[in-house]
Structures are given as C-alpha cells and as structure tokens.
C-alpha cells in the first residue's frame, strides 16, 4: 500500500471519529505499554544488532524505562488534561462562560532518528495517543532490524487505521531519500521530526506546502560549564557519564566543556579514572566491550575520524582517555579529549555526536557565558557549581532548550517538564501536559447566557450607545 493510501486510511478514520473517549485513549496507551514490557529484550537485541554493539543495559535504562515513564505519566494524567478548561469572562459579557475544549488534531506524523529509535518514537507517540490522535511513524533506515521488529509489534497490537509504521532497509541511497521526502509532503495535522538542524530545515520546507505545523527537535553544540566553585570531581564524573552513554550519540550529550583556565590536565586525569571505572574493557582488551556502544555505521565512524584529523591538522591536541585503540571494523571508538582546538576547526563548529569531548577554558564565568551566547542556542546546557549565585547567573544570562544543574541529561527524563529546543536547536516541545497540548487543538468556546447585555450594543445606534462608548473607551 502506498504512503498516501496508508495516510488516507488514518485520515478518514480520524475525521469519522473526532470525539475520542478517554477509555479508547487509555486502551491504546495500555496496548503500547504491554508491547514494550513483553518485547523489551527483543527490542534491545534488535537495536544492538543495528549498532554493531549497543549495551543492552543502556537500552533498558535509556529507552525502555524512559518510554514506560512517558506512557505511565500519560495514563495517570490524560483524563485530567482532556477536561475543558474554564477561562475568565470579561465583566461586560457575564454571565456567559469561556472554555477551552481540547480536541484531537487528527493524524500526526512522527519522524524518528537512529540514535534512540525506541525512546524518540514512544516519547511523542505517547502524547499523540493521549491527545486522541492517530499516528504515522517514519523510522530511520539506519536501524532496519529495529524498524522491522517495531512494525511487526505495532501491527500485532494496533489496527491499520490507528498506527502505521514506515521503515526502509539499511542500504540508504535515493530510495530512502525519496521515501522521507514523500512522507514529509503528506498533509498531516502535525509533524514531529527529531534529527539534525540541516535536515530539519528540509522537513519544515516540505511541511510548509500543506501548512502543516511542525515540532522540530534538533541538536547543536550543548555546553557543560564547570563553575569556579564546582565540586570538580563530581562535575567531571557526571559529564563523562553523560557524554559516553550511547558513545556520545545523543542529541543532548555534552559537546564541549567550559572550565577554568589551568584545569585541563586535572580534567583529563579525573576523566581517565572515570572511564577506567565505568568501562574497564577500554583498558583491557581481554574483556568484552558489551557496555560500550559502537558507532552506528561506517559513515558516521569516518565522519568522526575526519573531525579528529582536521582538528589535529589545525594544531589541536587529542588525548585518549583509555588504552584501547580505535577499531574500524567493529566501529569501536574509545573516548578522546580535544584541547587547543582553533575556532576554524570543524569540531568547534559542528555537532560532534560521538565520544569526542572538547575542552575550552575561560578566565571569568562571564567569559564562559559569552562563549555560549556567541553560538547558536543549544538544545541542552549543563552548569556545575555549588554557588547558587553562579548557577542563577548562568540560567538567567543564557538561552537553551533545557538545563540540568549539577548533572547531565536528566532533564529529558522529567515527564512534567517540556522537552524541546530553541532557535537553531528546535521548534516546539513535548512531554507530559505540554505534549498533550502540542498535539491537541485547544478550541476556544464562548457560551452565551440567556440573560446578556448584547442588546445594548445592537443597532439602531443612538445617544445611549454613544454614552456607553464614552464610558467604555477611555
């Protein structure tokens, strides 16, 4: 069946049943939850196969657990979110009533990236279903094993007129590009895209032909600021932890660290200790590297290698954080710290999306803030300091999609906080109630009372109306 026919099937169903009860919404969310619980190990195995090696434990924690959190939050609160909301009525129109009536948009398109194929599908999907919508999902061609499995599982749990899954093979090429372009050109009621800023521009351009509203979760260079009063060892530990989950292939991973001048070597030494403790196999080739994820494919592995060589050619220093060497055939890339990189180096300008960590020094905290503000607004920002005045200064003087203080990544796991970017890092946000609102039409409704003052504002206009206008317009 063509994409257009599959979309039409969903579209016709949505238009035929615009009123979606909480019982049906809850049933869909529960089916999705049961699917994840029953097949969590199959899902983790498929994702690991797509990566070459992906830690099963990381998939359980970062994707299965957090996906279940999103579903459970929607199940606990969705029936409240969908209730009409009272709004104040101006005194001249009382005793009439104003309400906002949440209604499903219809069919929402979801384009999922390869780095967290489950979480970045279920996250928006849980909000889409809670809002009473149907969904059409385009999975990445770089995760074919997961795509085939997820399509099969959705077909087992949902009818064709509830959720449709589109996935391609791993071959890449013009066929996959054409499929993505065709998907974006469908007249969705809303379109969610997670991926790079460059592709986000193309998605938005394609959606504009149908005036389809978009939510774009993009990326950029997310900084981690180690303040002058930070617990330095704690800061390094949490930055390295956040950076190396999924081998840095995380949209909100710390991209570069701003730290006080003279602390680079201390950072490297502490980081080496952390890597040795978290990933002992990176210092001992006799141990399996099950807990350390491979780079997803050869193209991305080569891209990271080019970032390293370009930085070195421009005078940067690359310092390994472990004794294990890179292994091209398995796409194992142990972590590296990059120092003394010039502004012209590609690694200073592009999102890294891998286990390479830039160190940039500053003299005063104001200089660190200025460095952040000199670039595009990041998707995430991390600040470490024990002085709340320093933390508040960073929070107030920088703009980013989200922030975690004295840790990394964890703001994305808070279902009662919206997740999204700003500027070049994204448009719109979802999660929790904000996600429900994002995928609902909040219809404004004015309910007139039988007793009302509208006769005072009706023609024929005369002296009484003129006096009333003098009273009102002043």
Structure description:
The strands form 4 sheets. A 7-stranded mixed beta sheet has the order 10-11-12-9-8-13-14, with helices on both faces. It is α/β, with parallel strands linked by helices and 474 residues long. The protein has helices at residues 3-16, 22-51, 56-81, 119-130, 144-157, 174-184, 197-208, 232-244, 264-278, 298-313, 346-349, 365-374, 388-397, 432-438, 463-472, and strands at residues 85-87, 97-104, 107-111, 134-138, 163-166, 190-194, 214-217, 223-226, 256-260, 317-320, 336-339, 356-362, 380-384, 402-405, 419-420, 426-427, 429-430, 440-447. The protein has 2 domains: 3-218 and 424-446, Aldehyde Dehydrogenase, Chain A, domain 1; 223-414, 3-Layer(aba) Sandwich (Aldehyde Dehydrogenase, Chain A, domain 2), CATH 3.40.309.10. The termini are far apart. The radius of gyration is 26 Å and the shape is globular. Helix 11 links the parallel strand 11 and strand 12. The protein contains 15 helices and 18 strands.
List keywords for this structure.
single chain, 474 residues, alpha/beta, Aldehyde Dehydrogenase, Chain A, domain 2, 2 domains, six-stranded mixed β-sheet
């Amino acid at each position: 069946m063509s994409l257009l026919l599959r979309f039409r099937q969903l579209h016709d169903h949505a238009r035929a049943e615009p009123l979606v009860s909480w019982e049906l919404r809850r049933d869909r969310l529960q089916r999705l939850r049961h699917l994840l619980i029953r097949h969590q190990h199959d899902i983790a195995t498929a994702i690991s196969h797509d990566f070459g090696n992906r830690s099963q434990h990381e998939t359980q924690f970062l994707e299965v657990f957090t996906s279940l959190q999103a579903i459970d939050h929607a199940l606990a609160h969705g029936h409240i979110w969908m209730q009409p909301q009272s709004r104040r009525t101006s005194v001249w129109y009382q005793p009439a009533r104003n309400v906002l009536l949440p209604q499903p948009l219809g069919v929402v398109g979801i384009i999922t990236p390869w780095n967290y194929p489950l979480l970045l599908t279920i996250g928006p999907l849980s909000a889409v279903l809670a809002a009473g919508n149907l969904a059409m999902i385009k999975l990445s061609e770089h995760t074919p094993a997961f795509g085939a499995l997820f399509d099969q599982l959705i077909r087992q749990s949902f009818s064709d007129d509830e959720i449709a899954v589109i996935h391609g093979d791993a071959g890449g090429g013009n066929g996959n590009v054409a499929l993505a372009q065709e998907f974006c050109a469908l007249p969705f009621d809303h379109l969610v895209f997670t991926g790079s800023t460059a592709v986000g521009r193309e998605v938005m351009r394609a959606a504009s032909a149908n005036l389809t509203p978009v939510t774009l979760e993009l990326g950029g260079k997310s900084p981690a600021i180690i303040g002058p009063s930070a617990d330095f060892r704690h800061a390094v530990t949490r930055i390295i932890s956040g950076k190396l989950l999924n081998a840095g292939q995380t949209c909100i991973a710390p991209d570069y660290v701003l730290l006080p001048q003279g602390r680079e070597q201390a950072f490297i030494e502490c980081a080496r200790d952390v890597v040795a403790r978290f990933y002992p196999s990176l210092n001992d080739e006799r141990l399996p590297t099950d807990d350390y994820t491979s780079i997803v494919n050869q193209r991305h592995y080569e891209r990271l290698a080019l970032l390293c060589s370009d930085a070195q050619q421009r005078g940067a220093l690359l310092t390994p954080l472990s004794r294990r060497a890179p292994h091209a055939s398995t796409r194992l890339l142990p972590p590296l710290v990059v120092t003394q990189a010039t502004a012209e180096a590609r690694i200073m300008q592009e999102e890294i999306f891998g286990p390479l960590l830039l160190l940039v020094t500053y003299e005063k905290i104001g200089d660190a803030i200025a460095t952040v503000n000199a670039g595009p607004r990041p998707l995430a920002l991390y600040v470490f300091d024990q002085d709340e005045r320093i933390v508040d200064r960073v929070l107030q003087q920088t703009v980013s999609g989200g922030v975690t203080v004295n840790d990394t990544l964890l703001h994305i796991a808070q279902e009662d906080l919206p997740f999204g970017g700003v500027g070049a890092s994204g448009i719109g946000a979802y999660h929790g109630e904000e996600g429900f609102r994002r995928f609902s039409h909040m219809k404004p409704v004015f309910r007139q009372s039988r007793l009302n003052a509208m006769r005072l504002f009706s023609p024929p206009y005369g002296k009484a109306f003129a006096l009333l206008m003098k009273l009102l317009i002043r």
